[in-house]
Write a structure and sequence with these properties.
121 residues; alpha+beta
Length: 121
């Protein structure tokens, strides 16, 4: 009677605690996965501090296809070091490893990545 009822209540409480713990584990795992994906993106995208920038002399056209000339200037992306035209480097954003927080000229690809992963949102 009463003893069995008490045992069933304890079992129910334990199952509830197990379920809550499973839910917390699942949430932590999702957070870890999200963090790992963000870090993976940074690792794939963040250049070393002394990035080897493309030589201006070696690049004759932008990735967009525009040929460099007196009218179409060359610019380095301050994040990845790629040489791009003015149209492809209209964006500026503070770089995560630059303590000055002054916005730097970056290419479209790096701007998109950096903007999506900003920590000051």
């Amino acid at each position: 009677g009463e003893k069995e009822k008490g045992e069933k209540e304890k079992e129910g409480e334990l199952e509830k605690k197990d379920s809550e713990e499973d839910e917390r584990r699942k949430e932590r795992k999702e957070e870890e996965t999200s963090l790992l994906e963000t870090l993976k993106g940074y690792l794939e995208h963040i250049p070393e501090m002394n990035t080897h920038w493309q030589s201006l002399r070696d690049v004759h056209q932008c990735a967009c296809g525009r040929a460099f000339s007196i009218a179409v200037h060359k610019h380095h992306c301050s994040y990845c070091g790629t040489v791009v035209c003015e149209v492809c480097s209209v964006h500026s954003i503070p770089l995560p490893y630059n303590a000055t927080l002054k916005a730097q000229r970056v290419c479209k690809s790096c701007f998109k990545f950096l903007h999506q992963n900003r920590t000051d949102k």
